[in-house]
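Why do we care about 3D structure at all? Because function follows from shape, and shape follows, mostly, from sequence. That is the central idea of this module. The next example makes it concrete: a single protein chain, its amino acid sequence, and then its structure expressed as C-alpha coordinates.
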Amino acid sequence: MIVLVPAMAKPPTFDVNYYQTQFQWRAGGTVSTPYGQWSYGPGGIKPPIASTEKSVMRQTGDVLHSSFVYNPTVFGNPRGMSHVYVDDGTGHWILHEGKTMYKYQPIYGPYTVVNYFRGYMDFSGTPSTSTFVHGVLYQWAYIMKSQKEPVQSFCPNAMWDPVMNGWLVGFSIYWQDPLPPPSPPTYSMPFPTSPFPRPIPANNCNPLGL
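And the structure:
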Protein backbone atom coordinates (compact mmCIF):
# COMPACT_ATOMS: atom_id res chain seq x y z
CA MET A 1 0.00 0.00 0.00
CA ILE A 2 1.28 3.47 -0.91
CA VAL A 3 0.41 6.79 0.67
CA LEU A 4 1.97 10.22 0.18
CA VAL A 5 3.29 12.82 2.64
CA PRO A 6 4.76 16.30 2.10
CA ALA A 7 8.34 16.42 0.92
CA MET A 8 9.02 19.82 2.53
CA ALA A 9 7.26 22.09 5.01
CA LYS A 10 7.06 25.29 2.91
CA PRO A 11 5.00 26.61 1.18
CA PRO A 12 1.77 25.41 2.83
CA THR A 13 0.51 21.95 1.96
CA PHE A 14 -2.97 20.68 1.17
CA ASP A 15 -4.59 17.25 1.38
CA VAL A 16 -5.93 15.27 -1.56
CA ASN A 17 -8.31 12.69 -0.10
CA TYR A 18 -9.38 9.68 -2.14
CA TYR A 19 -10.54 6.09 -2.10
CA GLN A 20 -7.76 3.86 -3.41
CA THR A 21 -8.27 0.45 -4.98
CA GLN A 22 -5.11 -1.61 -5.43
CA PHE A 23 -4.61 -4.49 -7.84
CA GLN A 24 -1.41 -6.21 -6.79
CA TRP A 25 0.90 -8.99 -7.94
CA ARG A 26 3.79 -10.13 -5.75
CA ALA A 27 6.30 -12.88 -6.43
CA GLY A 28 7.27 -13.47 -2.79
CA GLY A 29 5.95 -13.50 0.73
CA THR A 30 2.57 -14.81 1.84
CA VAL A 31 0.81 -13.54 -1.31
CA SER A 32 3.26 -15.01 -3.84
CA THR A 33 1.28 -15.69 -7.02
CA PRO A 34 2.30 -16.89 -10.50
CA TYR A 35 3.01 -14.10 -12.97
CA GLY A 36 -0.14 -13.27 -14.91
CA GLN A 37 -2.50 -13.52 -11.92
CA TRP A 38 -3.30 -10.88 -9.34
CA SER A 39 -2.34 -11.61 -5.75
CA TYR A 40 -5.13 -9.14 -4.99
CA GLY A 41 -7.79 -8.57 -7.60
CA PRO A 42 -9.93 -10.57 -10.04
CA GLY A 43 -8.74 -14.17 -10.17
CA GLY A 44 -6.34 -13.61 -7.27
CA ILE A 45 -6.39 -15.07 -3.81
CA LYS A 46 -7.98 -11.95 -2.31
CA PRO A 47 -10.25 -9.17 -3.60
CA PRO A 48 -8.84 -5.77 -4.60
CA ILE A 49 -7.59 -3.75 -1.65
CA ALA A 50 -9.84 -0.71 -1.18
CA SER A 51 -8.85 1.89 1.38
CA THR A 52 -9.20 5.58 2.20
CA GLU A 53 -5.93 7.42 1.70
CA LYS A 54 -4.63 10.90 1.15
CA SER A 55 -1.78 12.67 -0.58
CA VAL A 56 -0.32 15.68 1.17
CA MET A 57 1.01 18.03 -1.49
CA ARG A 58 2.88 21.27 -1.83
CA GLN A 59 2.56 23.33 -5.01
CA THR A 60 5.28 25.53 -6.47
CA GLY A 61 4.24 26.90 -9.84
CA ASP A 62 3.47 24.05 -12.22
CA VAL A 63 4.87 21.39 -9.86
CA LEU A 64 3.27 19.40 -7.05
CA HIS A 65 5.73 17.98 -4.51
CA SER A 66 5.08 14.89 -2.39
CA SER A 67 6.83 11.79 -1.05
CA PHE A 68 6.06 8.10 -0.87
CA VAL A 69 5.71 6.30 2.44
CA TYR A 70 5.43 2.51 2.60
CA ASN A 71 3.03 0.45 4.67
CA PRO A 72 4.37 -1.87 6.01
CA THR A 73 7.59 -0.02 6.74
CA VAL A 74 10.58 -0.87 4.56
CA PHE A 75 14.19 -0.87 5.66
CA GLY A 76 17.71 -0.31 4.40
CA ASN A 77 17.68 3.52 4.32
CA PRO A 78 15.01 4.05 1.63
CA ARG A 79 16.17 6.48 -1.06
CA GLY A 80 14.37 8.56 -3.65
CA MET A 81 11.16 9.01 -1.67
CA SER A 82 10.43 12.58 -2.84
CA HIS A 83 8.60 12.94 -6.17
CA VAL A 84 6.97 15.60 -8.29
CA TYR A 85 3.87 15.87 -10.47
CA VAL A 86 4.16 18.34 -13.36
CA ASP A 87 1.21 20.12 -15.00
CA ASP A 88 0.85 19.43 -18.72
CA GLY A 89 -1.38 22.50 -19.12
CA THR A 90 -4.71 20.64 -19.17
CA GLY A 91 -5.22 19.86 -15.48
CA HIS A 92 -3.35 16.59 -16.02
CA TRP A 93 -0.50 16.39 -13.48
CA ILE A 94 2.06 13.76 -14.53
CA LEU A 95 4.33 11.97 -12.08
CA HIS A 96 7.93 12.47 -13.18
CA GLU A 97 10.66 9.93 -12.49
CA GLY A 98 9.22 8.22 -9.48
CA LYS A 99 11.85 5.78 -8.20
CA THR A 100 12.73 4.42 -4.75
CA MET A 101 15.19 1.86 -3.41
CA TYR A 102 14.92 -0.07 -0.15
CA LYS A 103 15.24 -3.47 1.54
CA TYR A 104 12.35 -5.54 2.86
CA GLN A 105 13.78 -8.91 3.86
CA PRO A 106 10.48 -10.65 4.79
CA ILE A 107 9.60 -10.70 1.08
CA TYR A 108 12.68 -9.80 -0.96
CA GLY A 109 15.50 -11.38 1.02
CA PRO A 110 18.84 -9.59 1.40
CA TYR A 111 18.65 -7.63 -1.84
CA THR A 112 17.82 -4.00 -2.52
CA VAL A 113 14.55 -3.61 -4.38
CA VAL A 114 14.09 -0.83 -6.93
CA ASN A 115 10.55 0.51 -7.24
CA TYR A 116 9.51 2.53 -10.27
CA PHE A 117 6.36 4.64 -10.26
CA ARG A 118 4.42 6.18 -13.12
CA GLY A 119 1.03 7.85 -13.06
CA TYR A 120 -0.94 11.06 -12.93
CA MET A 121 -3.55 13.08 -11.04
CA ASP A 122 -6.35 15.10 -12.60
CA PHE A 123 -7.82 18.27 -11.09
CA SER A 124 -10.78 20.32 -12.31
CA GLY A 125 -8.91 23.56 -11.63
CA THR A 126 -6.10 24.75 -9.39
CA PRO A 127 -5.01 21.69 -7.39
CA SER A 128 -6.73 21.66 -4.02
CA THR A 129 -8.60 19.41 -1.63
CA SER A 130 -11.89 20.01 -3.48
CA THR A 131 -10.79 19.90 -7.15
CA PHE A 132 -9.34 16.38 -7.29
CA VAL A 133 -11.00 14.28 -10.04
CA HIS A 134 -9.07 11.03 -10.54
CA GLY A 135 -5.64 9.48 -10.23
CA VAL A 136 -3.76 6.38 -11.36
CA LEU A 137 -0.46 5.08 -10.00
CA TYR A 138 1.61 2.21 -11.41
CA GLN A 139 4.27 0.48 -9.31
CA TRP A 140 6.95 -1.97 -10.47
CA ALA A 141 9.35 -3.77 -8.11
CA TYR A 142 12.63 -5.16 -9.46
CA ILE A 143 15.62 -6.88 -7.93
CA MET A 144 18.48 -5.71 -10.12
CA LYS A 145 20.52 -8.91 -10.25
CA SER A 146 21.70 -10.75 -13.35
CA GLN A 147 19.80 -13.66 -14.84
CA LYS A 148 22.59 -15.90 -13.50
CA GLU A 149 21.64 -14.89 -9.93
CA PRO A 150 18.15 -16.37 -9.44
CA VAL A 151 16.02 -15.08 -6.59
CA GLN A 152 13.39 -17.84 -6.52
CA SER A 153 14.50 -19.11 -3.11
CA PHE A 154 12.55 -16.24 -1.51
CA CYS A 155 10.52 -14.97 -4.50
CA PRO A 156 9.41 -18.26 -6.10
CA ASN A 157 7.37 -16.57 -8.83
CA ALA A 158 9.92 -13.92 -9.83
CA MET A 159 10.15 -13.28 -13.59
CA TRP A 160 13.29 -12.34 -15.48
CA ASP A 161 12.75 -9.13 -17.46
CA PRO A 162 15.24 -8.79 -20.32
CA VAL A 163 14.14 -5.22 -21.05
CA MET A 164 14.81 -3.94 -17.52
CA ASN A 165 17.69 -6.42 -17.00
CA GLY A 166 16.41 -7.48 -13.60
CA TRP A 167 13.98 -9.76 -11.76
CA LEU A 168 10.40 -8.54 -11.68
CA VAL A 169 9.05 -9.33 -8.20
CA GLY A 170 6.05 -7.01 -7.93
CA PHE A 171 3.56 -4.94 -9.89
CA SER A 172 0.57 -2.87 -8.74
CA ILE A 173 -2.06 -0.57 -10.18
CA TYR A 174 -3.75 1.94 -7.87
CA TRP A 175 -7.03 3.67 -8.78
CA GLN A 176 -7.68 6.86 -6.83
CA ASP A 177 -11.15 8.44 -6.85
CA PRO A 178 -12.99 10.95 -4.63
CA LEU A 179 -16.07 8.69 -4.38
CA PRO A 180 -16.03 5.28 -2.66
CA PRO A 181 -16.09 2.10 -4.78
CA PRO A 182 -18.91 -0.45 -4.42
CA SER A 183 -18.69 -2.67 -1.38
CA PRO A 184 -17.26 -5.17 -2.04
CA PRO A 185 -15.30 -3.59 -4.91
CA THR A 186 -16.41 -4.79 -8.33
CA TYR A 187 -13.73 -3.11 -10.43
CA SER A 188 -12.44 -5.29 -13.24
CA MET A 189 -8.78 -5.16 -14.18
CA PRO A 190 -7.24 -7.97 -16.25
CA PHE A 191 -3.58 -8.61 -15.54
CA PRO A 192 -1.70 -6.96 -18.43
CA THR A 193 0.63 -9.46 -20.06
CA SER A 194 0.39 -8.81 -23.82
CA PRO A 195 2.37 -6.65 -23.76
CA PHE A 196 3.37 -6.15 -20.15
CA PRO A 197 3.78 -2.41 -19.40
CA ARG A 198 7.20 -1.30 -18.21
CA PRO A 199 8.40 1.83 -16.44
CA ILE A 200 10.29 2.93 -19.54
CA PRO A 201 10.01 5.30 -21.28
CA ALA A 202 9.65 7.55 -18.26
CA ASN A 203 7.23 9.93 -20.03
CA ASN A 204 4.64 7.16 -20.46
CA CYS A 205 2.58 8.05 -17.39
CA ASN A 206 -0.42 5.84 -18.22
CA PRO A 207 0.60 2.85 -20.39
CA LEU A 208 -2.79 1.11 -19.99
CA GLY A 209 -4.90 4.19 -20.69
CA LEU A 210 -6.74 4.11 -17.35
